[in-house]
Amino acid sequence: MPELPEVDALVDFLRPRLIGDFVTRADIAELSLLKTVDPSIDALAGLEITEVARRGKALIIGFDGLDLVCRFARMGWLTWHDTAPSGPIRMGRGPLGMRVRLASGAAVDLIEPGSKKNAAVALVRDLSEVPALASLGPGALSLTVDELAAVLSESTSRIKTVLEDQRIISGLGNAYTDEILHAARLSPFATAKTVDPQALHTAIHEVLDAARTALIGLPPAGIKTAKKRGFSVHGRTGETCPVCGETIAEVSFADKSLQYCPRCQTGGKKLSDRRMDRLLR
To answer: What are 84-135's pLDDT values in tens digits?
Structure first.
């Protein structure tokens, strides 16, 4: 799932290529992708692109009076074409969800591989019309230590859950919360109100700043690959922790998993993995 660092890198790539260009047409290839009907997606034709920005984990492409909001879900992403493909768009086939053709001859595709289609596009006159944006909490990099302390002090939830809740702190997902908790030497199951806000704040900035530095300047096709290379624990179950040499462990859930280092984060203890526990009985 694209998170704050990847979307910031995408914004950095797209801004000089999109701003000042004009849309010639926008085509939807996956009907479930488009979440709004008024204004019609056809209203983009002839409009000048005036801004490219990020809100939480969403990409915003701005026009005079309209905003195109792209939310990528787990598998969605953008593909850039210096020259727009000439072939016809076939509805409901393959990963293509939307293609935006530009007056310069270039094109941008929103793609989502796999059978589950959870990415979303909305064309709105005001960003508050998108519920997911209207309910966003402060950005992960904008919170002060005191603001983070206030957030943590009110919660009895697990710290991993709090960091991923876009209504509380926006921009983070499964991958970078794993990395932040490893950097802060915190168990993902620690109760939020027991966490040292200064240590967590430092880890948030260290991890996200390093990721943004590594990703900004890359084309969209290279961003996801480079993201994975920068991970210390996420997606590295069974590998060696780069800090202490311990074997990285995993907790599996119905639709995702988290990774952590037992020595760095949980005092050497393995966290209960209920799905695996059931399989081993």
So the answer is: 999 888 887 789 999 999 999 999 999 999 888 999 999 999 999 999 999 9
- For helices 145-153 and 197-215, the axis angle rounded to 10 degrees is 120
Q: Which of 134, 165, 195 is the last residue of a domain?
A: 134
Q: How far is CA 201 from CA 84, 151, 197, 214, 243, in A?
A: 43, 12, 6, 20, 20
Residue 275, pLDDT above cutoff 60 = no
Q: Give 143's pLDDT tier (boundaries 50, 70, 90).
A: very high
Together in a domain, 105 and 164: no
Two tokens, residue 158: 């697990």
Choose the final residue of a domain: 97, 115, 134: 134
The rounded distance, in Å, linking the Cα atoms of 100 and 7 is 18
Q: Which residues neighbour 235 within 8 Å (Cβ) at sequence distance 6 or greater? A: 175, 228, 259
- What is the tens place of the pLDDT at every residue in 166-178? 999 999 999 999 9
Separation of first and last alpha carbons in the chain: 32
Dist. CA 188–CA 182, nearest whole Å: 9
Q: What is the CATH number of the domain that holds 88?
A: 3.20.190.10
